[in-house]
Amino acid sequence: MSLRIYGNRQLKTLAGQETRPTLAMVRSALFNIWQGTIADCRWLDLCAGSGAIGAEALCRGAAVVVGIEQSTRAGAIIRQNWQQVANDTQTFQVLRGDVRQRIKSLEGQQFDRIYFDPPYHSDLYEPVIESIAHLQLLAPNGELAVEHSPYRFSVLTPSTLEICRQKVYGNTALTFYQTIS
């Protein structure tokens, strides 16, 4: 399957159902919401899948993009995709492994934008959102966007995060968090 992102760039994806790329409509909505905040930001892509979200962030000028993906095959494709779109002033890193474990290696870092898109029926939402809050990975003026099913998602609000907006796009929803001032 091929996938196109910002600037009509084509990305590679894995064949089959191993990853579920975020719909173009949802990607477009996300980047419209975060318009004007991507250039020079630090971006974290959790459960990166095809890497389309991180690639789009690079195309739009993110300074640093870090992705976590469990699949070795997907991780290799993400690296290829990001290498294809990154320029000489941008850095990126793909970490392979279970997001619940790998996220701990980011302690001490902060990100302006975090995108978290696990399999909708997984048990990853609560532990990962709690880890983001506990490890203080979200920068003070940053935002976390969580992609989920609008039909099966309990709103999670760790004590240091608050929901700032929610959007629904058909069978996909985005819940946005920010740090409590």
TrEMBL record:
Keyword Transferase belongs to the record: yes
EC number in record: 2.1.1.171
Top-rank taxon: Bacteria
Xref: InterPro entries: DNA_methylase_N6_adenine_CS, RNA_MeTrfase_RsmD, SAM-dependent_MTases_sf
Name of the top EC class for this enzyme: transferase
GO molecular function, one term: 16S rRNA (guanine(966)-N(2))-methyltransferase activity
Sorted UniProt keywords: Methyltransferase, Transferase
Protein name: 16S rRNA (Guanine(966)-N(2))-methyltransferase RsmD
Organism expressing this protein natively: Stenomitos frigidus AS-A4
